[in-house]
Amino acid sequence: MITVADAGFVRTLTLNRPEALNAFNTTMFDALAEALLVAAEDDAIKVVIITGAGRAFSAGLDLASNEATDTPPKHGFAGLYEALLEFPKPILLAVNGLGIGFGCTICGLVDMVFMAANARLRCPFSALGLTVEAGSSITFPHLLGHQAASWMLMSSEWFDADACARLGLSYATVADEDLLPVTMEHAQILAAQPLVSLMTTKELLMAPRRDALREADEMEGVAMATLRGGAANVEAVHAFREKRAPDFSRL
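-> structure tokens emitted (251 positions)
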């Protein structure tokens, strides 16, 4: 699910379910959370890069998953969210293709985002009869401004790499073939700095936001629960499975 590669003080974590467009199931949530917890405690690692294998960064939650287990998740989404909020070192995303749902909102939980020129992001929550998640009700207005965040979170439209950079959701757009080298170049610049400075600065940036992000996630979770299984969500799920556009004309 997650492949790990080190280059000096930089660790690259690759979401590795290309056959499922790196969509998150329970195993993937657990694996990424565990990888972050391990990297947090490893003094030989100063910077983490997260990217995806294949043509997608991540298609978000795996709606088509048939994963069955009698074992409760070790971390789940909640554990991964907490691992991201508490991660004490810089995290860079290398968005190599499609990023949908959490594959998009994770951009607000890291320190820098680099996008391949062909990459696109989408928050499909309204189109699923649902609402925002992963603290994006705070992170997106902070990064994009209120109006652009409102459009991205409500419209379910696609945003290309240039639009994401222009609006502030990503740091830079990079030629597809240069995505990982350019992201690694920036990671190595950071990794050349003393770990204590990186961690102190990261904590100063995160400390004023962490409790607000936890509160936002709780409120988003309650709102999500009220909508999940409702008429709009049921129609959206049926449409997804039937490979057709949803009809919300009476909803």
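The first strand starts at residue 2 and ends at 7.
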